[in-house]
Design brief:
There is one protein chain. This protein has two domains: 4-172, Beta-Lactamase, CATH 3.30.450.40; 182-326, 2-Layer Sandwich (Alpha-Beta Plaits). It is 47% helix and 23% strand. The chain has helices spanning 4-20, 24-39, 77-84, 101-107, 139-161, 167-172, 182-199, 213-220, 222-239, 266-277, 307-326, and strands at residues 43-50, 53-61, 70-72, 88-90, 111-119, 122-131, 203-210, 245-250, 253-258, 282-284, 287-289, 293-300. It has a six-stranded antiparallel beta sheet, with helices on both faces. The N and C termini lie far apart (63 Å).
């Protein structure tokens, strides 16, 4: 049986999830983060079924770098969980014939628990806990993970019941701005890298940070700050093409994937469009607010083809731009 402390942890998690309301993406990310201390896991993920694949839509710990990872339903333990609707445990991934060995090696796991997530009678995804160690998880861990899976399933139900958006949209978009969330952003980035390798196609990656949001919140309150964020998201959306993706990655951090690029120079044109879109001030409750973003841009394959390194380089360039903005007279 789970300990009293663990059961209290579950109750606290349920209380925090209630505060997140209809933000399904936020609920899923919170659950995978809390899975680690709850059952002493090294990583956790929530995978949803999309177009014949299992896709990592929330991830933490050693699974976090694999956000957006796709597994084949017919060749993974997660897929088997979808088909059977049963809780599945893997004692040792090195010898278990049911698992996707390449994916397990990529994550760095040796054992795992996979719990079905059921929505409207169908298993639509899984909650997975993973460990670097063989035979890590026992029956109390299964009980606790099952409690969390029921919380996620309830969040799926209520987020869609009281909103016209479908389950996929709720899981992959920021509830405040309607832009893509980090999970969808990473999924599209991995897809763009794979396509660039296949077709020698140029793609632009932008990392953006809104300047001055903290000062707006401190001086004018969070209502003004939220209004500025919503306006920024709206203007970013207006600058994108149908093939591009704009995302809110968290707080005042945004990202954009520009694909395809006719040439590496096309990134400059995109930056100019974004800068022009930010020029008109926002008028909110009688006050004017100037919108400004610091942007770091990379182009693949020119700047590399590894997601982590591309993001790091774009971040470095973005912070260099932010430094220039701060020192601008």
């Amino acid at each position: 049986m789970p300990s009293r402390e663990q059961l209290l942890q579950v109750i606290n998690i349920q209380s925090e999830i209630a505060k997140l309301g209809l933000d399904l993406g936020g609920v899923m990310q919170y659950v995978v983060e809390q899975t680690l201390p709850l059952i002493d896991a090294d990583g956790a993920a929530i995978e949803l079924v999309e177009d014949g694949d299992m896709v990592y839509r929330a991830a933490s710990g050693i699974a976090a770098p694999q956000l957006g990872l796709r597994l084949k339903i017919d060749a993974s333990l997660s897929g088997l969980c979808i088909k059977t609707g049963e809780v599945l445990a893997c004692f040792d991934a090195a010898t278990d014939t049911r698992v996707d060995h390449a994916a397990c090696n990529k994550v760095g796991l040796r054992s795992m628990l996979v719990m079905p997530l059921k929505y409207q009678g169908a298993t639509v995804g899984v909650l997975k806990a993973v460990s670097r160690h063989v035979g890590k998880f026992q029956q109390p861990d299964i009980t606790l993970l099952n409690m969390l899976s029921e919380v996620v399933a309830a969040a799926m139900y209520f987020s869609v019941k009281y909103d016209n958006d479908n389950l996929f949209f709720k899981a992959t978009h920021d509830s405040m701005t309607g832009l893509a969330n980090r999970a969808l952003f990473m999924d599209r980035l991995h897809n763009a890298i794979a396509r660039a390798k296949r077709e020698q196609l140029s793609t632009g990656l932008l990392m953006m940070d809104m300047d001055g949001l903290k000062q707006i919140n401190d001086m004018h309150g969070h209502r003004a700050g939220d209004a500025v964020l919503l306006e920024l998201a709206k203007r970013l959306r207006q600058t994108t093409r149908d093939t591009d993706l704009a995302a809110r990655l968290g707080g005042d951090e945004f990202g954009m994937i520009l694909t395809p690029l006719e040439s590496p120079d096309a990134v400059t044109a995109a930056l100019l469009r974004i800068e022009a879109a930010m020029v008109p001030p926002l008028t909110f409750e009688g006050s004017n607010y100037q919108l400004q973003v610091s942007i770091g841009a990379v182009v693949l394959p020119l700047d590399g083809m590894e997601a982590d390194k591309l993001l790091e380089l774009a971040d470095q360039r973005m912070y260099a731009m932010k430094h220039l903005h701060k020192n601008k007279p």
